[in-house]
């Protein structure tokens, strides 16, 4: 395992890349509604990222064909934007956005409600988002990755939801995926120790039904096997002496849609 510790200057560059991700989310929050295609969301995000001097981190990454991931309802992650996927009232959509700015990557995801969503689904989203911040609270010098993992898993499973095993959070920096992996399940006191200068993406992927998932033939789209909805939230976090420092932001989203789900 090769964990790359960032300097204060590099962390500030990462903050800039992540803030642009947050701003891009804010632009999409304005237009996510019934009747909008996921390809349209992709095109708006791509244009906004480039207009702000960055490039989309996902486009071409291991062959991924679009600039953002748009995962609707039972799609957990890696949904490919398409003109054929049109949002409907009652849907949820997880939008995962990455940027490369000044040589560093920003990466953050948010799950949006489309129109009027059932209270049952809203509770899944609330729990997933709350678990993200519980995980972040454990991202402190001297703790271990397993402390983050346990916080997410315990909270979500107590709420009767399930945690996806096949996909994890990750380190982030000059590359989108760096060591260490950050699972959303695990045991306290296990895994790599957190050190000053580590930057990690914590991203609970939580299912309303069973934890089992499968990959579609496109080689990307991951769905829940029981086709129940899945929620996904992600922040990029720096490990600092004063505690975890969130480099990404939901501020621009919440200015549009509010803080309450």
Summarize the SSE layout with pairings:
Elements: H1 8-29, H2 38-51, E1 55-56, E2 68-72, E3 75-77, E4 92-101, E5 104-113, H3 119-137, H4 145-158, E6 162-163, E7 169-171, E8 178-182, E9 199-202, E10 205-207, E11 213-215, E12 222-224, E13 230-232, E14 235-240, E15 243-246, H5 251-257
Helix pairs in contact: 1-2, 1-5, 3-4
Structure characterization notes:
By secondary structure, this protein is of the alpha+beta class. The protein is built from five helices and 15 strands. The chain has helices at 8-29, 38-51, 119-137, 145-158, 251-257, and strands spanning 55-56, 68-72, 75-77, 92-101, 104-113, 162-163, 169-171, 178-182, 199-202, 205-207, 213-215, 222-224, 230-232, 235-240, 243-246. The strands form four sheets. A five-stranded antiparallel β-sheet has the order 8-7-9-14-15. Strands 1, 2, 4 and 5 form a four-stranded antiparallel β-sheet that branches. A hairpin with a 2-residue loop joins strand 4 and strand 5 (104-113). Helix 1 runs parallel beside helix 5.
């Amino acid at each position: 395992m090769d964990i790359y510790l960032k300097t204060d200057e590099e962390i500030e560059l990462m903050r800039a890349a992540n803030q642009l991700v947050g701003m891009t989310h804010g632009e999409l929050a304005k237009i996510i509604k019934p009747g909008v295609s996921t390809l349209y969301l992709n095109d708006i995000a791509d244009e906004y990222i480039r207009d702000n001097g960055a490039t989309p981190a996902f486009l071409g990454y291991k062959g991924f064909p679009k600039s953002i991931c748009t995962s609707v309802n039972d799609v957990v992650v890696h949904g490919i934007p398409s003109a054929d996927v049109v949002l409907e009232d009652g849907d949820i959509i997880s939008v995962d956005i990455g940027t490369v700015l000044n040589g560093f990557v920003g990466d953050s995801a948010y799950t949006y409600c489309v129109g009027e969503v059932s209270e049952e689904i809203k509770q899944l989203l609330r729990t997933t988002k709350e678990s993200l911040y519980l995980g972040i609270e454990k991202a402190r010098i001297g703790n271990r990755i397993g402390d983050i993992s346990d916080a997410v898993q315990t909270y979500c499973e107590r709420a009767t939801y399930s945690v996806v095993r096949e996909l994890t959070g990750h380190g982030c920096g000059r590359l989108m995926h760096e060591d260490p992996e950050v699972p959303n399940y695990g045991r306290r006191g296990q895994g790599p120790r957190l050190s000053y200068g580590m930057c990690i993406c914590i991203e609970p992927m939580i299912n309303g039904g069973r934890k089992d998932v499968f990959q579609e033939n496109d080689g990307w789209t991951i769905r829940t096997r029981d086709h129940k909805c899945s929620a996904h939230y992600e922040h990029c976090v720096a490990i600092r002496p004063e505690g975890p420092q969130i480099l990404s932001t939901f501020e621009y989203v919440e200015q549009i849609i509010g803080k309450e789900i």
